[in-house]
Amino acid sequence: MCQQAAPRDVSAQAAAAPAAVAPPHAVGTNNAVAGPHLSTTDVGNSTNIRWHDSMVARTDKEMLLGQRGCVLWFTGLSGSGKSTVACTLEHLLHERGHFTSLLDGDNIRHGLNKDLGFSAEDRAENIRRIGEVARLFADAGAITMTSFISPYRADREMVRERCNAGEFLEVFMNIPLEVCEQRDPKGLYKKARAGLIKNFTGIDDPYEAPLEPEIVVDCFDADGQQRSPRDMAEQILEVLDGMGYLRDPRMPTLTAYGALQRKHSDGILDFAQL
Ligand SMILES: Nc1ncnc2c1ncn2[C@@H]1O[C@H](COP(=O)(O)OP(=O)(O)O)[C@@H](O)[C@H]1O
Ligand SMILES: [Mg+2]
Q1: Which superfamily, per CATH, for 59-242?
Q2: Ligand 2 centroid vs 214 CA: distance in angstroms?
């Protein structure tokens, strides 16, 4: 699985680095003082900063790992199985020798995002931070999974736009509210129905289902039976494999970044046009 990348002439690489390596948000320069200085820029409240190019190229890391970094963004109601299926998928990938990272909603709220609540504003900041962290992992070559309700389309689109083409795969856990409410593993729906929790997604806060998710995970099989987490994880694994994420990036792939054909009915991507 792991192939050692050839040693690189780092100085030559840096010299040859295209300007496009700089992130899209690093616009404008601060060149008020004349002199042989490197130009800097302002991004948000961060002044006089300069993007430092990666010493080891992303593709070299991906070749080492035999996979392509990506962000699998699980979204769905509380209790829809985001954590369970993402966790099952992570184990399946690990067993096959893949380097993964799983950022889970509740876990991240124990640390990085413990200062955030559940207002629309805080939810947006929660997603923004997770998106940025997920991008860093993907940039290091990891098959990165995130499991957050992420109920608002605009917040998810914000993350998608921050990712490179083909790097962001939205995984919609298409589980009806009734099923989630019946599972209610943490008793949260019961509390929300009783008015003890406010702003609960699906009850008194909206969930905006994705319009064009790359992968749709349906609740029921053809016989109307609830599918198992393993079955769902295997569906996603198959898509990842088919799209070339689980192979050395030098190998021919079935698809090209930025040319994803989406098919909603069965969650399988259609390569016929590629
Ligand atoms: N595909 C499934 N079939 C049956 N039960 C499931 C399935 N996925 C999840 N569950 C159960 O539903 C509950 C909620 O899952 P969880 O992964 O915590 O949801 P979320 O992370 O979306 O809030 C758990 O008790 C889990 O065992
Ligand atoms: Mg969860």
Answers
A1: P-loop containing nucleotide triphosphate hydrolases (3.40.50.300)
A2: 20
